[in-house]
Every structure is written in C-alpha cells, then in structure tokens.
Amino acid sequence: MTLLESAFNRSFRTLLGREILRFVRVWTQTLIPPLLTSLLYVVVFGVALGGRIREVDGVPYLQYILPGVALMSLITGAYMNTSTSVFDAKRERYIDDILISPMSDAQIALAYTLGGTLRGLIVGVGVFVVGMPFAGASVVNPVMLLLIAVTVAFTFSALGAVVGVVAARIDHVTFMTNVVIQPLAFLGGVFYSADMLPPALRVATLFNPIFYMVDAARYATLRASDTNPYPTLAIVAALAALAFAGAWWAINRGPNLRY
C-alpha cells in the first residue's frame, strides 16, 4: 500500500468515526426519543385501531403496522443525521478542512452517508426489536429484511447529504422532514393496505417511493405485500444509487460549499 493510499484510508476512517461518535455521544437525544416516539405509534395505533381493524390481509393489525413504523423511524434517523451534520459543517466552515483532506468527493460523500445509515439502522432495528413482544411478530426472511433496511437507510442518508449541502438555512433541512418525508411515510401504507384505498388514491400511492420500501419490509417480515416484492427491491436499489450519485454531486459541485 502506498503512502497516498494509506492517507486516503486513514482520512476516510477518521471522518466516518467522527460521524458515528457524533450521534453516539448524545444518544439520549439521537437514539432514545425516536425509539420512544415510534413505540408510542405502535401502542396507540395498535390499541386504538386494533379493536376496529383486527386483521389486514390475514395479519393481526399490530403486527401489520410494526415493519412500517420501524422503517419510518429508520428513514427519519438516517436523513436527519446526515443532513444536520453536513449543514453544520458548512455553516461552521469546518467543511473546508474535510474538502482539502486527501479524500475524493466520493469518499467524503460515502463517509457521511454511512454514518447516517448506521444511525438509521440502530433506531429502526431498536423499534422493531422492542416492538416485537407487543405485536407478537416474527421475521419470515431476516436476510431480506436486513438488505431492505440497509438500502433504505443508505438512500435517505445520501439524500440528507444533498439537502445539507443545498440548504441555506436549517429551516430547509427540517422542511424536508416535516413537509416531504413524514407525509410520504404516513401515506406510504404504514398504517393501512393500499387495497383499502379508493382507486384514485391507490394509483397516487403507487407514485410514492416510500410505499415500495414499506411494502418490501412488510413482505420480508410477514409475507404480506400489496405488490410483487422483487421488482420493489430493484426500485429501492435504484433509488439508493440515484441518491448517492446526488450526494457525490453535492460534495463535488454543491452551492455555497466552496469559496
């Protein structure tokens, strides 16, 4: 290994380690609140609606919503970690030190994205593991579920990097969460089956990318699905590639990132 290659690897590991420590050190703010909020969704919706909607596609309602609630938490955690980290680095101008380090733009984008991916996975898996005893659920295909979780977390973490670069104010970061991601998650079949919707809304749901992610996670967990899960996996993988390409572009040419 050449000295240059060693510097690249060391710089990448340093940035990735920083991104991990960033949320681990304040775990009471970054990990516990989303876990508790998601469990409240499971308990409140499961108890309140479970008495009226006992089963969906032959699956008890509480089990039916658990994969979607866990994925919703995973998405939010992955996105918020990377978007706020990149935005803070840009606002405080210590992004300059990262940009002049012996790392390529792709490595910088990947380090940020992997840090957010890990946080999203921790939150999502935590919700799922803690919620399983309440729902009485078990995982039919854990390998497929893990693949979906990693891909979805990677996708929204990379999207967070794009938003962190492009955002001019912190309001722009939270705008994506509150006005785009969360509404899409709620309308993505987390709490209901697409077959329960009127035809017009059912068609609109098919244009929601989060619907395919939730549907694939539900299939891997319960073997219940509104769509064919294998083309869905291809769609999720394509979205992950597209999001990372966007993160790479943002680090390379993003506005207000370089003087």
Automatic annotation (TrEMBL):
InterPro entries: ABC-2_transport_permease, ABC2_TM, ABC2_TM_bact-type, ABC_2_transport. It comes from Rubrobacter marinus. Residues 25-254 form the ABC transmembrane type-2 domain. The keyword GTP-binding does not apply. The chain crosses the membrane at residues 31-49, 61-87, 108-131, 143-168, 175-194, 232-251. Signal peptide: none annotated. GO terms for molecular function: ABC-type transporter activity. It holds the Pfam family ABC2_membrane. PANTHER family: INNER MEMBRANE TRANSPORT PERMEASE YADH (PTHR43332:SF2), INNER MEMBRANE TRANSPORT PERMEASE YADH-RELATED (PTHR43332). It is found in: Cell membrane; Membrane. One of its GO terms (cellular component) is ATP-binding cassette (ABC) transporter complex. This is Transport permease protein. It is a multi-pass membrane protein. Belongs to the ABC-2 integral membrane protein family. It comes from the Bacteria. Keywords: Cell membrane, Membrane, Transmembrane, Transmembrane helix, Transport. Its main location: membrane.
